[in-house]
Design a protein that fits this description.
- The structure is a homodimer.
- Chain A is built from eight helices and six strands.
- Chain A is of the alpha/beta class.
- In chain A, α3 links the parallel β2 and β3.
- The model of chain A has no long low-confidence stretch (mean pLDDT about 95).
- At the A-B interface, α1, β1, α2, α3 and α4 of A face α1, β1, α2, α3 and α4 of B.
- β6 of chain A pairs antiparallel with β6 of chain B, so a sheet runs across the interface.
Chain lengths: ~200, ~200
């Protein structure tokens, strides 16, 4: 073995010892509260990826979309193949500038929250995505304390993913994992439109 | 209608006009080069979500994993349901501290890149994920100029997603979309272990 290869191996042996010790120190298993926030892309998309992974483990999963409305999406078609292992609820009415009706937006969010509470109480669901819930909280369409308390009181084996920009500090405080998606570069700025298969 | 509801509607009408103008200004359709980088969670997971969305549109998709090795993952099980519409190649040998063999790591990356080139040339593939390619580039296991040139020369209807920390500036320069996943809070810091269905 060359000197370089030997040095590499020795360095990696040390690194592996550190990594193994770190892994061994982590022993807790629990249902997580995950938050995907920030201005960048990938918040809802990463939640979809988690859903796919969970389905691969044989879990039942739930999706409640608080803002997204009746429009056709690839993800909704895709999950049909998993049948009743996916409880999918698109309950938004579209963006606030589409409905132009605050009372209707609030009513839609409250209905979506009631559906989310039902799914949280369903012991067959192991992962629940609350898509754009942060938007509903940001506009005070739902009571923050009520929502955070319900998320904190989730079943010990239930993972919940909350998406949307501008996550409230109280939700971040309650969460186990918070990822901030930052936008370094966006093709919309270069005149590229939202395309089927990528954005929806 | 109350004054408040009227003001809300007027404000949203104006906002909708702005939004509609923005959408109308975006006319370009093209295969995108998307990069998910940064230290936070969600880089590979958002790529999986994109894959799910694309599958929902009836596309064929490809996945090449450059670093992840033979271990069992939920996502790999999940995509089996889509049959030969997913070309899935797990070609890594694990992390560098697992193999402890630089020559073997380099050979694995080169093989994975050759498979990626084959998929880029396959006109039935519309979305290709090159998972952890950034890691292979960071360690100079692949030639950066060659990789960036091949990605830039992709078919006009092929979307490519590159994931991994520390994306190289030349790749960011070539990309249409770059999202930086930032870690605001991580459950590993609180002693929670990597759990089946969430991390793998």
């Amino acid at each position: 073995m060359s000197d370089d290869a030997t040095r590499h191996r020795e360095k990696m042996e040390k690194r592996k010892a550190v990594q193994d010790a770190e892994v061994a120190a982590k022993t807790v298993e629990k249902g997580l509260l995950l938050v995907h926030t920030g201005p960048g892309k990938g918040k809802s998309t990463a939640a979809l990826g988690l859903m796919l992974r969970a389905l691969g483990r044989g879990w039942r999963v739930g999706m409640v979309q608080f803002i997204k409305g009746g429009w056709d999406t690839g993800e909704r078609h895709a999950v049909e193949v998993f049948g009743d292992r996916v409880a999918w609820h698109t309950l938004g009415e579209g963006f606030t500038w589409e409905t132009q009706d605050k009372a209707r937006d609030i009513a839609a969010c409250r209905h979506a929250w009631a559906v989310a509470e039902g799914l949280m109480a369903d012991p067959t669901i192991r992962l629940l995505v609350l898509d754009e819930l942060n938007i509903a909280l940001r506009y005070d369409y739902l009571d923050l304390d009520t929502v955070v308390a319900a998320l904190q009181a989730r079943r010990p084996d239930l993972h919940v993913v909350v998406t949307g920009r501008n996550a409230k500090p109280a939700l971040i405080e309650a969460a186990d994992l918070v990822t901030e998606m930052g936008s370094v570069k966006h093709h919309f700025s270069a005149g590229v439109k939202a395309q089927e298969g990528i954005e929806f």
